Amino acid sequence: xxxxxxxxxxxxxxxxxxxxxxxxxxxxxxxxxxxxxxxxxxxxxxxxxxxxxxxxxxxxxxxxxxxxxxxxxxxxxxxxxxxxxxxxxxxxxxxxxxxxxxxxxxxxxxxxxxxxxxxxxxxxxxxxxxxxxxxxxxxxxxxxxxxxxxxxxxxxxxxxxxxxxxxxxxxxxxxxxxxxxxxxxxxxxxxxxxxxxxxxxxxxxxxxxxxxxxxxxxxxxxxxxxxxxxxxxxxxxxxxxxxxxxxxxxxxxxxxxxxxxxxxxxxxxxxxxxxxxxxxxxxxxxxxxxxxxxxxxxxxxxxxxxxxxxxxxxxxxxxxxxxxxxxxxxxxxxxxxxxxxxxxxxxxxxxxxxxxxxxxxxxxxxxxxxxxxxxxxxxxxxxxxxxxxxxxxxxxxxxxxxxxxxxxxxxxxxxxxxxxxxxxxxxxxxxxxxxxxxxxxxxxxxxxxxxxxxxxxxxxxxxxxxxxxxxxxxxxxxxxxxxxxxxxxxxxxxxxxxxxxxxxxxxxxxxxxxxxxxxxxxxxxxxxxxxxxxxxxxxxxxxxxxxxxxxxxxxxxxxxxxxxxxxxxxxxxxxxxxxxxxxxxxxxxxx
Length: 591
Fold this sequence. Notes:
The protein is of the alpha/beta class. It is built from 23 helices and 11 strands.
């Protein structure tokens, strides 16, 4: 059997197709080349969205400060492997006019084509995902000590370097620390945290960023122009959004999008792209959010069902709702100048929708949708989970803003005796504030407006005295130790709960006050408010102040000098009808 190896490369242009036979040459059909390969960057100027890295490398090469090892990290498809090959070309650049490391690769150098094809003898590429062992690394290290064959440097490109085993990393460390002058290492990884810090510390690290949506959309539009493809910009924006900052993913999706219009002269529109991607209509998702935030429950449920019937994925719909709530928060924070990457029409709708909302409400909505997105992903019935999340969002939209609730409770007058007690109000999920009741203010006669609502209970000190009189020891202890008063306007009170305060302290106090005064009280425990001292802290402070004042009394100072071993044990308060200066502090011998 003939064991001559098969020829794996096409013959040159001047060589006959088959040696020894006088046959005409026939061009070999290489087939269609996907856009991700066809438009791979050929120079550093072609890299999009990585200006900081290119600027750093350009300055380093110009100054002759070239590192011996580089670590390129970033998500899939942002250009790590492409950048590694460009750096290898720059390191070995040689042309008729330049024979030195050079970042300007516009003019093809002597080694550029071979390195770009991964066919250069001095540039070794290794995929660590398939070659993870220490033996694979030793094969590389055995050749490091030899000088390059034709290039200036031997360049080792290791892709997915985080996949190497611990022993492989250990074998690499010594060479990375003291490499030969002719050796350069370029590592690429999507999981930088899995790379040992001992390796990272020996490399110059570059974080390749996700490509901004607008920048990526412009890039896709340029490629469509080069390909003669007609795709609407809204459709390209959908592709850029679905690619999540990955150029390779975006070009792969563009390949699919272009063929959507192969049987027609019309442009490929956003609807066709949306069908291809399986995305719900973003405009309809904004309609859904508008129904929810305006508490139109029936419309919201029907819109969610319509989106699902049209092919929308509940997870994608939930994520879109979450993104729109984030967009509303940015609009509320910085106004219509917020850079959202949305169309002008969508931005106008977001500004109008954010107008009546507060940042406190939007923060609450974000938390609900963030938790709901996890529920939708994990639920056996994703649509049911999305519907329940939507209902929680609607319920939260029907509540007053947290700051409005606090102001309302702080100024609510007593309810009529025959008025039914409303249910306790709290935000969905973990409550931020504990509220006993919210009641509508009744009409108060003008003549009675100036009269105190609760004679003898006009301050927090009066409340403490009432607790002492009623001998509710447990509640009195909790109020004295854990209540930091913020405002006290009968029949309402706001306080900041101290650490370890019982979660139902506000409810217990409101129930007791209802029993003792016959009126319903609004007690608000606000963890975000800044209250004063607790009653216990106040007593301790006053006790210490009295002690310090007594220690300064001239008579006591003289007594302490006469009896050096004496110490102040207690201070006896004088009766109310005795002048303060007639009752000296008491001292006792420490013995």
